[in-house]
Specification:
Order of helices and strands: EHEHEHHEEEE
Largest sheet: 5 strands, parallel
Shape: extended
Strand content: 15-25%
Mean pLDDT: 86
Strand order of the largest sheet: 2-3-6-1-7
Helix content: 25-40%
Number of helices: 4
Oligomer: single chain
């Protein structure tokens, strides 16, 4: 209906036994993202070197204008590292990343159970709202994160983040942890049939 928006963010998980090559498959699938991230970091480093040079000129010019009683020139803007993929990141830092990258990112989790268990690990007594944060971003619901280190809270009107990971069948119920809060319902599950594999020198073109 008019005005209705549906999130295109995906939470996806591959369910397979240990040794079924979940990690190598995920590594191949995410390789383009990591290559893009490597390129973005190189661009950021080049921009930051230019920024440091401009900052030195600005500081020298500011001292001259201060002596002459004239207004200081505008301070050069510090560059921001663009991101397309994250892995080991706190909710607070992720809010900063989403604030700086409105097109969103992908959260790559090799072991999804570890991702779930790490929620709220930096909060006193393990109490926090990390799980609620992930439940909200799945549907692009607005998120506001306050931190002592920020004068202005991070407010993301439409957080875009997808999650990809893998998990063993026996550990899969751990996503629920007895809360029945809809976390398990947000995931798309792939449970491929196990394939017998033998060593071969064949390669995929």
């Amino acid at each position: 209906k008019r005005g209705w928006k549906e999130s295109a963010a995906l939470f996806a998980v591959v369910v397979a036994e240990p040794g079924d090559k979940k990690t190598p498959a995920q590594k191949v699938a995410l390789a383009p993202l990591w290559q893009a991230q490597k390129r973005l970091k190189k661009e950021y480093q080049e921009e930051y070197e230019l920024y440091e040079e401009e900052l030195r000129h600005w500081e020298a010019e500011r001292k001259v204008t201060a002596k002459e009683g004239e207004p200081a020139p505008p301070k050069p803007k510090e560059p921001v590292l663009k991101s397309v993929v994250v892995d080991d990141v706190t909710v607070e830092r992720l809010a900063d990343i989403l604030d700086e990258n409105p097109r969103g990112v992908t959260s790559a989790q090799d072991e999804l159970s570890g991702w779930v268990l790490s929620m709220n690990q930096y909060k006193a007594g393990g109490k926090g709202a990390d799980r609620q944060f992930w439940l909200r971003v799945w549907s692009n619901a607005p998120v506001k994160v306050d931190r002592k280190s920020r004068k202005v809270p991070a407010i993301i009107a439409e957080p875009w983040i997808s999650v990809i990971g893998s998990i063993q069948p026996e550990i899969l119920p751990g996503l629920d942890i007895g809360r029945n809060d809809g976390m398990m319902d947000r995931f798309l599950y792939s449970y491929p049939e196990p394939q017998r594999a033998r060593h071969t020198d064949d390669e995929v073109s």
